[in-house]
Sequence to fold (298 residues):
Amino acid sequence: MELLDIGEVSARSGVQPSALRYYEDAGLIASVRRHGLRRQFAPEVLLQLKLIAMGKTAGFSLHEIAGMFGQSELKELPRAVLRERADAIDRQIDELTALRDTLRHVADCAAPSHMECPTFRRLIDMAGRRGGKRSKPALSSRQDSKQGG
Amino acid sequence: MELLDIGEVSARSGVQPSALRYYEDAGLIASVRRHGLRRQFAPEVLLQLKLIAMGKTAGFSLHEIAGMFGQSELKELPRAVLRERADAIDRQIDELTALRDTLRHVADCAAPSHMECPTFRRLIDMAGRRGGKRSKPALSSRQDSKQGG
DNA sequence: GCTTGACCTCAAGTGAACTTGAAGTGGCAG
DNA sequence: CTGCCACTTCAAGTTCACTTGAGGTCAAGC
Fold:
């Protein structure tokens, strides 16, 4: 199997070399060996990077992504935690759906003040109808740690 | 109509007073007046904060959220931009769906190495099947500005 | 009139996720 | 053998979204 150096991985994934080194430091990916100084990556790192990108889109921190898909931790991760994550993403999808519908409404509704439009208010209310005031329960944890009270 | 002071808004929204001041500075919300030094907010700020939370969940920066829902900019925002945002959220929902399915698969599949599991690889591939390698076209713009090449 | 306490401002600090810059290394083409 | 250049390390810098801390204000209650 052909190994890729960091420039190749960067070109194929769209992720900057500096970010790749950062990910390696963080334990999200690993180079299989060195060729001189240069890192050599297995092609499957491209798949892992796709996974990382997906996790980032979902708002997970790199630390959390490492917990889900990182090297060697995978086998030890309790399956319940994974399902919890999946459920959290489901809730996030609901919220995103409400936001998308709200945006489309705003684009179509010619009302001067959207705050007075009942359709608008109803759309916004729909997103909050699940867990009270918390919308991202166990996700990025940096803003929720203090706000969640 | 009864006005709320910052502590009240914080209590009802779950957003810290310091964050509310920060949002005001950033033009996302506005206090209607002052009572002495104290900001007085109209109740509808709670709706705006819900909107802001939704935008954050979607990965938009505060600046972008201000562009979508901020004070007084709303009426000038081209409707095409809103629809574009909505489309971007649709793509994000697709990606999130793939991630959720992947997570559920990992939780159920007992394979020792997921990288070798064809179902796993197929799930990951599904997320990338839209715009080539870019997944968040016009969203947060801080990592895409350099990576998008 | 004095105290209380929730508010105020402003500057600096924080953490995440990178990027940038400086100085160095080393495989390979010529 | 030389020089190139893509890589290397490490420290410091950047942006975002806040939080924290110090010192100050003021409406209200006793």
User: Anything to note?
Assistant: Residues 16, 18-19, 22, 26, 35-38, 56, 61-63, 140, 142 of chain B lie near DNA strand D (CB under 10 Å from a C1'). The mean pLDDT of chain B is 82.
